[in-house]
Amino acid sequence: MADHYQNNVYHQGGGDSYGTYGEGGGPDGYGYQADYPPQEEDAASDVTEGHDDEDQMYEGEYQGIPHPDEVKAAQRAARCSIADGKRKVAASELEELSEQYEDIMQDCGHGKFQWMLFMVLGLALMADGVECYVVAFALPSAEKDLCLSNAEKGMLGLVVFLSMMVGAFLWGGLADKTGRRRCLILALGINCIFAFLSSFAGSYGFFLFFRLLSGIGIGGTVPIVYSYFSEFLQMDKRGEHLSWLCMFWMFGGIYASFTAWGVIPRYGWGFSMGTELQFHSWRVFVIIAALPAVTSLVGLTFMPESPRFLLEHAKHDEAWMILKQVHDTNWRAKGKPEKVFTVTHIKAPKMAEDELIEIQSGTGTPVQRWAVRSLTLCKLVRQEHKLVQTGLLRFATLFMATIWFCMAFSYYGLSVWFPDMIKHLQYEEYETKVKTFHRERVVDVRFDFPLKNQIHKEGEYKRDTFIGIEMKSVRFEDSLFDNCTFEDIRSTNTVFENCTILSTVFYNTDLWEEKFIDCRMENTTFEHNKHGCHLDSVEENDVLIYLVSFLGSLAVLPGNIISALFVEKIGRVKIIGGSMLISAGCSFFLFLSFSQSAIIALQCMFCAVSAAAWNGIEVVTVELYPTSKRATAFGVLNALCKLAAILGSSIFASFVGITKAIPILLSFAALVCGGLVALKLPDTRQKILQ
Known about the structure:
Blueprint: H1 2-10, H2 68-108, H3 112-145, H4 150-178, H5 180-198, H6 204-218, H7 221-230, H8 235-263, E1 271-273, E2 277-279, H9 281-289, H10 291-300, H11 307-312, H12 316-333, H13 352-360, H14 366-387, H15 394-432, E3 435-438, E4 441-443, E5 446-447, E6 451-457, E7 460-462, E8 465-467, E9 470-477, E10 480-482, E11 485-492, E12 495-497, E13 500-502, E14 505-509, E15 516-517, E16 520-522, E17 525-527, H16 544-554, H17 556-566, H18 572-588, H19 596-624, H20 630-654, H21 661-678
Parallel strand pairs: 3-6, 4-7, 5-8, 6-9, 7-10, 8-11, 9-11, 9-12, 10-13, 11-14, 12-15, 13-16, 14-17
Antiparallel strand pairs: 1-2
């Protein structure tokens, strides 16, 4: 038949004409007769001229041979049908696993094991809270010790949130592929190592680099901690105990404020390491601030991996052993050691991506296997990041991204604005107390008392001695110093502008050339001058910043308690929406704040209400996403939160001393927007963790 088909269709016999199609070439057949004019081989037939390629008949269709396009379409349909079938089977298996896992957690109960894990993960969350304050508290002293410019100080503040943003994005995806416990140990380990090294940094570059890596490490704690802990909780306990866990972030702020308040102003707590490095008290504070991370890291070595994660990756035996450990630990602590773990089989679907890694791990040299595995892992993590932003999860991600961004923009923006506004009010009050002296003439006088907040204009000082004093916010303008002595002087914000200085000696002072603006000097000597950067006096380290942060962190406690007690009763959605709208009202009342005490009171109120909103947001984020994408989604949203924090703090701080209307209106608008969007979220109280 094939030979017949070939000869009948394509054979060109001794003449110049084409053969006929079909079995016969008679008058009733469909054929091209030889009496047509001869054509070139590549020329088109006159009969088919003007027809589209789509309209031409396929030569084999009369013999029942399908068109190639039809074959491809059928193959595509078959593949889609198989893929749909696999997806339905996988979805059914995962749903069955979710229901069975919830039943197992109900059987294990809530007890000693969850409380031990609660403390260990709480300390990790506490370390994240501390990280947000470390640089801000250490900076007033570190800027003198490391000779920092204003631009360098700004970069240090910025790198904290930038590094945490990168860490959240990176570790969240890795935790869904390699394990919650493993990633959390690595993240905390990186944080501890580089936080410790940063305390010994002798230059700005090293300090910035170490804090950058420290922040990348600690950035992974929030998405991993909530995902990890939620997978050990039964449905009716999940919202309440995740809310209690949020309190540790507040404890981090209190711990950082309290230790900074108690350590940094105590300059005697430092020591010298050669001539190059002075280990001042702010360096001691940096080490003490890392203790929660170190403690959590030690505790994690005694904790198991999430069994739900193991089941998602087809590690049935390991998951079963951990669930049995949870069961036995809880029931022994309750005085019922005889209660037996009766589960014998757990549904554990096989994941295709795990197979890919297993196949690659058995080939090549160890270096090649590591490279292939790392590249495969990176591709899978990148794929997970795309999946949480597309498909069925895109609307959930869009809603949650809006809420996270609006809340973080307002919360972190106002958290910076509150202390900066208090400082501005202090500065305005300070300015009203400035003493101005005009054309004073002082001869043969010994100044052995502090000079503070003074302006001296067109003064004349002859044979005067300034010895062993502090000069703070003192300004000399158009003045004459003749045959004077400055000895053992400590100065802050002190300048000499357009002055004439004759036959004057500066001995062991910190008055260097930058403090003399357009001055004329004759026969003036500087002996044993203090060069480089140094710590200012104790008063220069304003204790108010510690107090404000301490009160703001402490004010979070009522919001945490209320949200934990009512999150299961009134629902996550109402907690988030209501708290954000009430926070918007609190921010609007800032128009009425004209004193430091009023700003501090409103800050405490705002932080208390915002804490309830944050708790609800984090609980819903855990419950909206399936186990395979939970940490990834949490990491993406937490990274967005840090981006909003950078924008909010930068924008709000730029308006301090200019206007308070714009920061207040921006905060109000963002909170109202986020609150209204939150009310559209589904209620996840009775949702089994997928």
